[in-house]
Amino acid sequence: MNGVHTLEQYGIKIKSITEPFDTSDPSGRFLLTILAGVADLERSNILDRLWHGANRAARNGKWLGGICPYGYRVDNEGFLTICDTPLPGFDMSEADVAILVFRLTVEQNMSTYS
Known about the structure:
This protein is mainly alpha-helical. The protein folds into two domains: 1-60; 61-114, no CATH class. The protein is built from three helices and two strands. It has helices at 2-9, 26-59, 94-107, and strands spanning 72-74, 80-82. Strand 1 and strand 2 form a beta hairpin. It is rod-shaped and about 80 Å long.
Protein backbone atom coordinates (compact mmCIF):
# COMPACT_ATOMS: atom_id res chain seq x y z
CA MET A 1 0.00 0.00 0.00
CA ASN A 2 2.89 2.37 0.75
CA GLY A 3 4.31 1.71 -2.71
CA VAL A 4 0.97 2.43 -4.37
CA HIS A 5 0.62 5.63 -2.36
CA THR A 6 4.12 6.74 -3.37
CA LEU A 7 3.45 6.02 -7.03
CA GLU A 8 0.16 7.95 -6.89
CA GLN A 9 2.02 10.98 -5.51
CA TYR A 10 3.90 11.01 -8.83
CA GLY A 11 0.66 10.71 -10.77
CA ILE A 12 1.07 7.01 -11.55
CA LYS A 13 -2.09 4.90 -11.36
CA ILE A 14 -2.04 1.13 -10.89
CA LYS A 15 -4.15 -1.13 -13.08
CA SER A 16 -3.96 -4.88 -12.60
CA ILE A 17 -4.30 -7.29 -15.48
CA THR A 18 -5.07 -10.23 -13.20
CA GLU A 19 -7.13 -8.50 -10.47
CA PRO A 20 -10.23 -6.36 -10.97
CA PHE A 21 -8.92 -3.05 -9.70
CA ASP A 22 -7.70 0.22 -11.09
CA THR A 23 -6.46 2.86 -8.64
CA SER A 24 -7.62 5.67 -10.89
CA ASP A 25 -11.13 5.43 -9.42
CA PRO A 26 -12.45 5.19 -5.83
CA SER A 27 -13.82 1.65 -6.29
CA GLY A 28 -10.43 0.38 -7.45
CA ARG A 29 -8.62 1.99 -4.52
CA PHE A 30 -11.20 0.47 -2.14
CA LEU A 31 -10.75 -3.01 -3.66
CA LEU A 32 -6.98 -2.70 -3.42
CA THR A 33 -7.30 -1.75 0.25
CA ILE A 34 -9.56 -4.77 0.88
CA LEU A 35 -7.11 -7.12 -0.89
CA ALA A 36 -4.21 -5.69 1.13
CA GLY A 37 -6.20 -6.22 4.34
CA VAL A 38 -6.96 -9.84 3.44
CA ALA A 39 -3.28 -10.43 2.62
CA ASP A 40 -2.25 -8.96 5.97
CA LEU A 41 -4.81 -11.13 7.79
CA GLU A 42 -3.55 -14.25 6.01
CA ARG A 43 0.06 -13.38 6.86
CA SER A 44 -0.88 -12.95 10.53
CA ASN A 45 -2.75 -16.28 10.52
CA ILE A 46 0.26 -18.08 8.99
CA LEU A 47 2.63 -16.60 11.58
CA ASP A 48 0.24 -17.59 14.37
CA ARG A 49 -0.01 -21.18 13.10
CA LEU A 50 3.78 -21.40 12.75
CA TRP A 51 4.25 -20.12 16.32
CA HIS A 52 1.74 -22.61 17.73
CA GLY A 53 3.25 -25.45 15.69
CA ALA A 54 6.77 -24.69 16.92
CA ASN A 55 5.56 -24.56 20.53
CA ARG A 56 3.71 -27.86 20.12
CA ALA A 57 6.83 -29.49 18.65
CA ALA A 58 8.98 -28.13 21.51
CA ARG A 59 6.53 -29.42 24.12
CA ASN A 60 6.79 -32.85 22.49
CA GLY A 61 10.59 -32.71 22.78
CA LYS A 62 11.48 -32.06 19.15
CA TRP A 63 14.57 -30.08 18.17
CA LEU A 64 13.49 -26.76 16.65
CA GLY A 65 16.62 -26.14 14.63
CA GLY A 66 19.93 -24.42 14.81
CA ILE A 67 23.28 -26.00 15.49
CA CYS A 68 22.83 -29.39 17.08
CA PRO A 69 24.53 -29.61 20.50
CA TYR A 70 27.84 -31.49 20.56
CA GLY A 71 27.27 -35.12 21.49
CA TYR A 72 23.79 -35.24 19.98
CA ARG A 73 22.24 -35.69 16.57
CA VAL A 74 18.75 -35.12 15.20
CA ASP A 75 16.96 -38.32 14.21
CA ASN A 76 14.54 -38.75 11.29
CA GLU A 77 11.59 -37.71 13.46
CA GLY A 78 13.23 -34.47 14.63
CA PHE A 79 14.23 -35.55 18.14
CA LEU A 80 17.67 -35.13 19.70
CA THR A 81 19.40 -38.44 20.30
CA ILE A 82 22.83 -39.25 21.69
CA CYS A 83 25.46 -39.41 18.95
CA ASP A 84 27.31 -42.66 19.61
CA THR A 85 28.93 -42.96 16.17
CA PRO A 86 32.71 -43.23 16.60
CA LEU A 87 34.66 -40.19 15.46
CA PRO A 88 36.88 -40.85 12.42
CA GLY A 89 40.27 -42.15 13.58
CA PHE A 90 39.19 -42.51 17.24
CA ASP A 91 37.39 -45.10 19.28
CA MET A 92 35.27 -42.41 20.99
CA SER A 93 32.01 -40.81 19.92
CA GLU A 94 30.96 -37.19 20.43
CA ALA A 95 28.92 -38.33 23.44
CA ASP A 96 32.00 -40.05 24.90
CA VAL A 97 34.01 -36.82 24.50
CA ALA A 98 31.29 -34.79 26.25
CA ILE A 99 31.21 -37.30 29.13
CA LEU A 100 35.01 -37.22 29.38
CA VAL A 101 35.04 -33.40 29.55
CA PHE A 102 32.35 -33.51 32.24
CA ARG A 103 34.24 -36.05 34.32
CA LEU A 104 37.55 -34.20 34.03
CA THR A 105 36.05 -30.85 35.02
CA VAL A 106 33.52 -31.89 37.65
CA GLU A 107 34.86 -35.09 39.15
CA GLN A 108 38.60 -34.31 38.91
CA ASN A 109 38.37 -30.50 39.26
CA MET A 110 40.33 -29.84 36.06
CA SER A 111 39.81 -26.54 34.28
CA THR A 112 38.36 -26.13 30.79
CA TYR A 113 40.68 -23.13 30.34
CA SER A 114 44.29 -23.59 29.33
